[in-house]
Amino acid sequence: MPRQATGSVETHEWRDGKTITYRARFRAYGRRWRIDFGTNHEGWNEERARVELERIMGQIARGTWEPPAPEAPVELDRDETLHVTASRWWQRRESELAENTKLDYRWRLDHVLLDLAHTATTAIDARRVDDFRQKLHARGLSPRSVNMALDLLAQVLDDAVEYGLLDANPARGRRRRMKVAKTRRTFLEPDQVIDLLDVAGEWESGLPPHQQYGRRALLAALCLAGPRISELTSAPRARLDLHGGRLRVGEAKTEAGMRDIELTFQLQAELREHVAHMAALGARRPQPRRSSPRTAAASTAPATSATACSPSASSARTRGAKPPARCCSPTRSRRTRCAGRSPAWRSRPAATRAG
Fold it and tell me: Per-residue confidence of the chain (355 residues) as pLDDT tens digits?
């Protein structure tokens, strides 16, 4: 006796969080079947899908149900332009991209389609890609921006290869790219960090109480812990665990940035002193009228770094040491933390090593 046909309704939620596909799974004629009915945007819901499943089950019981015929492969137009190929690629990828990524990709697509929109996809070869690269450079784009546009063109042509329009992707490979000058990533040496913190502390001690926001502690956290300036200035006191030696980052540019930052012993001492000093000032500090201490710290952090460099340079020259650069940005302070993890930085004498 053949096994009785059974089935169920399944749903699949898309990545965009707005689209739901309804499908049926059932057993008939000795095998399992899965049939997609449609999406919620096409008028399908769970109740309608169950009604359709019951109709199919009835046909299977009567022996009148016929499996759907396999869809014939869609023949692509061999003469389609890159505009059509790029539009198909964009329609497939758009729902998977974040908003900032969409803006970036649209900017790249504008440059690609400005020159290649009416070019047949099958006619694009390495020479066409090299000519396109030169046009981008002549338009005033930097080598890095040119390579970004070429990277997106390569993604579009990957689809053309998979669909059989091209045998190979002519936009792939290092020879199609422009040479980008390597940016010099500078950082502070251990003795420069100490000079910078000392000068920042002396400078703030001469300010009135209502203008003291912990500039030394701010620079110490940037140099010794390495958070972004936005992560540090937006962190409330509750996220600082001085006993455990950790700072919880709850607001970051990406999900991967949500993390716990381990604090060195020297940084913990700096922050304890800062917390005690701010508590002592709390009783006599007037309430700011236009901004909070957190906002003021965020706005004065870059200026604090740059201003403190001048006196610390004088101190370094007096001792015969290397002075810091004229502009010590929060980003440079963050790179100092990354450099502090290297063996060369840690091999400095303990008397001059900052953290």
Answer: 455 667 899 998 888 788 899 999 998 888 888 889 999 989 999 999 999 999 999 998 888 888 887 766 666 677 899 999 999 999 989 988 889 899 999 999 999 999 999 999 999 999 999 999 999 999 999 999 999 999 999 999 999 999 889 999 999 999 999 998 887 767 777 777 788 888 888 888 888 888 888 888 888 888 888 788 787 777 787 888 888 888 888 776 666 667 888 888 888 888 888 888 888 877 454 444 444 444 444 444 444 554 545 555 455 545 555 555 455 666 666 556 554 544 444 444 433 333 3
Rounded distance, CA 195 to CA 310, Å? Answer: 10
Residue 267: how many other CB atoms lie within 10 Å: 23
Domain 82-176 has CATH 2.60.120.260: no
pTM: 0.50
Between helix 82-93 and helix 143-162 the angle, nearest 10°, is: 90
Tokens of 170: 């002519």
CATH number of the 190-346 domain: 1.10.443
Among 322, 303, 302, CA closest to 312: 322
Q: Are 143 and 182 in contact (CB under 8 A)?
A: no
CA gap 214, 199 in Å, rounded = 13
In whole angstroms, give the CA distance from residue 240 to residue 256: 19
**213 contacts 296 by C-beta, under 8 angstroms:** yes
How much of the chain is in helix, strand and coil states, percent to nearest 5? 55, 10, 35
Boundaries of every domain in the chain: 7-62, 82-176, 190-346
Q: In CATH terms, are 82-176 and 190-346 the same topology?
A: no
